[in-house]
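README, section 4: Worked example with a bound small molecule

Sections 1 through 3 covered apo chains. Here we extend the same pipeline to holo records, where the ligand is supplied as SMILES alongside the sequence. The molecule in this example is flavin-adenine dinucleotide. Nothing else about the input changes; the structure line simply encodes the ligand pose together with the chain.
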Amino acid sequence: MKCVAILGGGPAGAFAAAQLASAGLTVQLFDEKLAWEKPCGGGLTYKAYNQYPFLLNNPTPKREVRETVLAASDAGEATLKLDEPLLIYSRFDLNRLMLERAEHAGAQIEKARVLSIARGAFGWQLRTSGGTATADFCIVATGARNPLRDVGTQLRAEDTMSALGYYVPGNQARINIQFLPHLEGYIWVFPRCGHLSVGICGKGEAAGSLRRRLELYMAQHEISWKDATFYSHLLPSLDASSWRGNRVSGDGWMAVGDAAGLVDPITGEGLYYAIRSGDLAARTIVEDACSPAGLPAAYRTLLRRDFAGDLEFGSRLASRVFNGKFLGGAVTSRMVQFTRLSPTFRALMQDLFAGTQSYIGLKQRLMQNLNGSLIEAICNLGLRRLIPGEFHAR
Ligand SMILES: Cc1cc2nc3c(=O)[nH]c(=O)nc-3n(C[C@H](O)[C@H](O)[C@H](O)COP(=O)(O)OP(=O)(O)OC[C@H]3O[C@@H](n4cnc5c(N)ncnc54)[C@H](O)[C@@H]3O)c2cc1C
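The generated complex, written as structure tokens:
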């Protein structure tokens, strides 16, 4: 393979470009904006920087957050200390860091919009806002709003969440997560360098309604959105039925990151999966263990084994987490209460926030620890007060 074209220079495309160029391939990356403030919380879990230490060890400004406050309207709050902090970047800074790595590794970076791609007998012909180019292989990294119809995942309405919010002046040491009744999603307040990102994501609910919920929350918490910058974007959140047929690769191409729908359907975490899929796509090409015709299938198998199988499992849990009931109350309220009352459950939540607890292993861990968590909760509060109607948030 002589030349790989990377379409899109977000975390997925930039990481794939860096890996391929380091391995000696000719790499051309096209992005219409290059580094930009893509609407995003910018939160990176321990799982991400533990596997890719350059995300932690660099001089780029970022926040290290060691405390999260979880809240549900009928369950009060619970403070969760994070042994492994969450890193929070501005997306402009993170994208720039990753594009510079790719450039230093030898990738050619071009600020141009890819208008169309066509596969001929001798490879790909690309038409961009800057002219034309050819490539032997394409990596599609154009994000959730991928405009290239024939490559990448085909998102249906039920495979997406709306996500929107405001960048507001302010500073705080902790993250806030607020669960709301009848919302498959949540509100977040993320401290960033110099400002807060306050946002909401939700599945199956119109953006206008989400915005009203967010503004109500902000008003109740005295966070003004006057003069604040508003942002909104699409977040892939594949339905359980969409994973099996998910179009992640084909003849001469592989899709990575949001363009392949690779986002955690419960938390909305996408940065790790963007970087990881960029890594796996590059590895599939570099290791070249099969003929070019075998690359798409090899990548699909690698993705599934590595994390896509777990995300598919997570997509089956999502509506039960946000809309389900446990012990007569909402699962999200119980999560808040148990986090407050049970050290065993708190340890599980810490691992979920660090990204080290898989969804496939979650049920078994919950079942194993259920008795212990219940006993701890009862000892700390009393079962009587866990019963709906009698529970008083502390
Ligand atoms: C509001 C919100 C909050 C989020 N918060 C978090 C969070 O805190 N933590 C987390 O892990 N994930 C979060 N996510 C998800 C995360 O933002 C995405 O999963 C991640 O950006 C995916 O990276 P990517 O490289 O696949 O795509 P993107 O980051 O979207 O990059 C795609 C790139 O392709 C370029 N492009 C698109 N079309 C073309 C074209 N035709 N030609 C040239 N270039 C093109 C764009 O300019 C862009 O730079 C959030 C998402 C949203 C919407």
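What to look for in the output: Residues 387-394 have pLDDT under 50 and may be disordered. The radius of gyration is 22 Å.

Section 5 describes how to batch many such records.
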